[in-house]
Design goal:
100 residues; mainly alpha; Helix Hairpins; elongated
């Protein structure tokens, strides 16, 4: 049986990679993928702690987080496609300079 600390270490590593992806990359799709990586790292921690405690509360919470993440991706990618059609770029710096 694998100890919970290994899962938490993996979760922290994945979350750190996600933060680095959000802070360093300028492509909006990579930023979305990094946010999803951070959400999955949090899900891993929830499941690890739920397993350690012997209940399913963390797994139920993960179900809702995955549902919200799927909705976030659908809306975010729809916005990104619309912005790409208008601006012809997926660069976050160019997107942040939208003027009416």
């Amino acid at each position: 049986m694998v100890e919970t600390s290994y899962y938490i270490l993996l979760s922290a590593s994945l979350f750190t990679l996600g933060i680095l992806g959000v802070l360093v990359r300028r492509n909006a799709i990579v930023v979305f993928m990094s946010v999803e990586l951070m959400l999955n790292a949090a899900n891993l921690a929830f499941v690890a702690f739920a397993r350690q405690q012997g209940n399913i509360d963390g797994q139920v919470l993960v179900f809702f987080v995955i549902t919200v993440a799927a909705a976030e991706v659908a809306v975010g990618l729809a916005l990104l496609v619309t912005i790409f059609r208008n601006k012809q770029t997926a660069d976050v710096d160019a997107i942040s300079q939208l003027h009416g």
